[in-house]
Design goal:
CATH class of the largest domain: Alpha Beta
Mean pLDDT: 97
Largest sheet: 10 strands, mixed
CATH architecture of the largest domain: Alpha-Beta Barrel
Number of domains: 2
Structural class: alpha/beta
Strand content: 15-25%
Number of strands: 18
């Protein structure tokens, strides 16, 4: 990655632009903030704050590195989860094959910080977006992307200019009622043939996304996931048999969100007579969570025993008011924490720097800046207490913060991480 760009982040003053950090003169930087001795539990940060546990991040990155090595898989974590170049650096240093993104805007962030290989797990069809790819590749960023129609391939090929490096593409295999992706074998093969014939486009494999499959019966969901992954595998095998992959210097089969990557590793193993790189795009494993992925992760479902993931995100807020029995109003809301899948999950109470489990309570509603905590434990709180919560769905947590404090196991600030949404 680009050391100068990362150094600029590390030297960025932590001032009024960044919520969650106190005023200080002179302001610290992410490099020096650990010297201030600030602690979440001591009330040194302005609340609310969303903190990243340093120990959990390191453990999760190491766990996924070991799991992928043991299962002959490469990891290209979806950067849209964090959009944090400092975390991209850690993941790439741990051996990740690429950083995945969903949009050209996200790809530009990666390129600006020197990510060497970017997988755009999406179709790109707009002129400005297509026009960015050639200059980015000429500057040294390797760009892969998805196609699902001859029309999309045609727009990609037409946008190229003389001297642009070839663009590697993966045919996206879709499903009925899914998002983008070729819906049947005929559409997939027409797309592959168009990519094979297009100047400056190299058909390099297939991609899919099994995360759209859900339901109340885990066994039924797993069966549907396996069937879909079998379709993705079959498409690649057909492309290879037809000679459509002959120009590819590397063949890739990619799928795998943060819930079913174990099934991807088990099922998506095409046999085509040459090596195929299996690329997982699991983005939320870097932080895990206390809600969605606590329920769905293969580690949590007991399907795989070789490792564990640890929730790394903690939201802390102060008790602002106790206006009636069984209710405490906390100073955090929809602008601070994710709420699209689960509301924050109360875990700890801190008073005078001492932390303990909070007891029986739940957050039942959020306003823009307030949380409604109800239950017997609410009556044991006092105004000014701190309440720490786990969160659900990291993808909608990071986007609410331009800078997150890194904290150690005692919630002392050790650094900071920027986001670019």
């Amino acid at each position: 990655m680009d050391e100068a760009a990362l150094a600029a982040l590390r030297a960025d003053p932590i001032d009024w632009r960044y919520k969650g950090f106190p005023a200080a003169d002179p302001p610290p930087t992410p490099t020096s903030v650990g010297e201030r001795g600030w602690s979440v539990l001591a009330g040194d940060l302005t609340l609310p704050v969303l903190a990243l546990r340093e120990d959990a991040l390191a453990a999760n990155i190491a766990t996924m590195r070991a799991w992928c090595a043991a299962h002959d898989a490469s990891l290209a974590p979806h950067g849209k989860t964090t959009m944090a170049p400092e975390l991209f650096r850690r993941q790439l240093d741990a051996g990740c094959w690429a950083i995945t993104v969903a949009t050209i805007a996200q790809a530009r962030v990666c390129a600006a910080f020197g990510v060497p290989r970017i997988l755009i797990a999406n179709e790109v069809v707009d002129p400005a977006g297509l026009g960015w790819i050639g200059p980015a590749q000429r500057a040294g960023t390797e760009v892969w992307l998805l196609v699902d129609s001859p029309a999309g391939v045609g727009r990609l090929a037409a946008a190229r200019t003389d001297g642009d490096p070839p663009v590697r593409v993966l045919v996206e295999i879709g499903m009925p009622d899914g998002r983008a992706g070729a819906r049947d074998a005929a559409a997939a093969e027409a797309t592959a043939e168009a990519a094979r014939a297009a100047d400056g486009v190299v058909l390099s494999g297939v991609a899919g996304w099994e995360g759209h499959i859900h339901g109340d019966d885990p066994a039924a969901v797993e069966a549907r996931v396996d069937a879909y992954l079998g379709d993705v595998r079959g498409a690649l095998e057909r492309f290879a048999a037809a000679g459509l992959l002959d120009e590819a210097d590397e063949v890739v089969a990619s799928a795998g969100g943060s819930a079913w990557f174990d099934r991807v590793a088990a099922v998506l193993r095409p046999e085509i007579g040459r090596p195929v790189r299996l690329v997982l795009r699991s983005g939320c494993t870097v932080t895990h969570d206390e809600g969605l992925y606590r329920r769905l992760s293969p580690f949590e479902r007991g399907r795989i025993g070789d490792g564990a993931l640890v929730p790394a995100l903690e939201a802390w807020a102060a008790v602002l008011s106790q206006p009636e029995p069984g209710l405490a109003i906390l100073g955090m809301g929809k602008r601070d924490v994710p709420f699209d899948i689960d509301l924050p999950l109360p875990r700890w109470r801190a008073r005078d720097g001492a932390v303990e489990a909070i007891g029986d309570c739940a957050i039942t509603a959020l306003n823009d800046q307030h949380a409604f905590l109800r239950g017997p434990a609410a009556d044991g709180l006092v105004v000014g207490d701190l309440v720490g919560c786990g969160v659900s769905h990291p993808c909608t947590a990071f986007d609410k913060w331009r800078l997150l404090p890194l904290v150690d196991a005692e919630r002392r600030v050790t650094g900071a991480v920027h986001t670019f949404f």
